[in-house]
Amino acid sequence: PVAYHGPGKFDPAVGLVKPATPPKQTFTQVFGQWLCDMAGHDQRLVGITPAMREGSGMVEFHKRFPDRYYDVGIAEQHAVTFAAGLACEGLKPVVAIYSTFLQRAYDQLIHDVAIQNLPVVFALDRAGLVGADGATHAGNYDIAYLRCIPNVSLACPADERECRQLLSTAFGQDHPVAVRYPRGAGVGAQPLGDLSELPFGKGELRREGQRIAILAFGTLLYPALEAAERLDATVANMRWAKPLDTELLLQIAARHEVLVTVEEGAIMGGAGSAVLEALAAAGVSRPVLQLGLPDQFIEHGDPARLLALQGLDAAGIEASIRQRFDAERPSAPALKLVP
């Protein structure tokens, strides 16, 4: 039955063709390997899936740890409440779920997990645009719908290595943490073999530039870096949508004339909104350009092409910054704001 769940295009004369092995490890595979490694390290870990064993990368975990694997069927609400119950008994549940499917369990997430401040990890696969699966499966809203919930934190790894490390960081916390990552492969950053963590709630500077600072959340860090080379802009890998690294943000704001936020998620209520809220709370006034997904449903298509159509590839990011701020080449004497 699994093979019939979502078959792609095929020739009826020859049947289904086995898909080619991707040249790079996918984020889903990174999660699956991390889950097995952490389970071998910590007996408290249990894995939960709402009927997405294959899609969420849990096949190997099921084989190696059958007594710690729970498939609750297509019942996302139960998956979250079940995780809350297990956490109450001292276990460390990891709920592997697509970003779009967690929407179905929003009430349980708030009432059963967040209010009790339980240490549940949510591994949010398919965050952002998903290409062939279309608007129903697009994980465009998790930043907006998670960061408003008290006690819940949200990590946005930029690549495969950070994904593994931030999953370990999330597992080490004593409150609910979600880690969002996209479908498919990233830039090919080889994950470290250990279970090392990254600092909780902290980002990093990846490039020092002039006048313009780009704050990147998630995998759009890399097109942001490419655009920054042509703009001579500073780039920060923010890593966390919540808690936001306000210390890093305010340091950057103090040294730059304009800020740009970049995320593969809805602009309304997203990470860029978190940046604006933090600046307002600190009494800091800077022009901010928010780049992300617009207030519309985005249809099927190749993910790279869809990102380009939304202006979220390197060329689009550069063009949006130049259009908004009339940014000249690095030799320009000043930055002119378009009224």
Which helices and strands occur, and which strands form pairs?
Elements: H1 27-41, E1 45-49, H2 59-64, E2 69-71, H3 76-88, E3 92-98, H4 99-102, H5 106-114, E4 121-125, H6 142-147, E5 153-155, H7 160-171, E6 177-180, E7 204-207, E8 212-217, H8 221-231, E9 234-237, E10 240-242, H9 246-255, E11 258-266, H10 271-281, E12 288-293, H11 303-309, H12 314-325
Parallel strand pairs: 1-2, 1-3, 3-4, 4-6, 5-6, 8-9, 8-11, 11-12
Antiparallel strand pairs: 5-10, 7-9
Helix pairs in contact: 1-7, 3-5, 8-12
Describe the structure.
The protein folds into two domains: 2-180, Thiamin diphosphate (ThDP)-binding fold, Pyr/PP domains (Rossmann fold, 3-Layer(aba) Sandwich), CATH 3.40.50; 204-325, Rossmann fold (3-Layer(aba) Sandwich), CATH 3.40.50.920. It has helices spanning 27-41, 59-64, 76-88, 99-102, 106-114, 142-147, 160-171, 221-231, 246-255, 271-281, 303-309, 314-325, and strands spanning 45-49, 69-71, 92-98, 121-125, 153-155, 177-180, 204-207, 212-217, 234-237, 240-242, 258-266, 288-293. By secondary structure, the protein is of the alpha/beta class. Residues 329-335 have low confidence and may be disordered. The longest helix is centred in the N-terminal third of the chain and has 15 residues, at 27-41. α3 packs parallel to α5. The protein is globular and about 55 Å long. It is 34% helix and 17% strand. β5 (153-155), α7 (160-171) and β6 form a beta-alpha-beta unit.
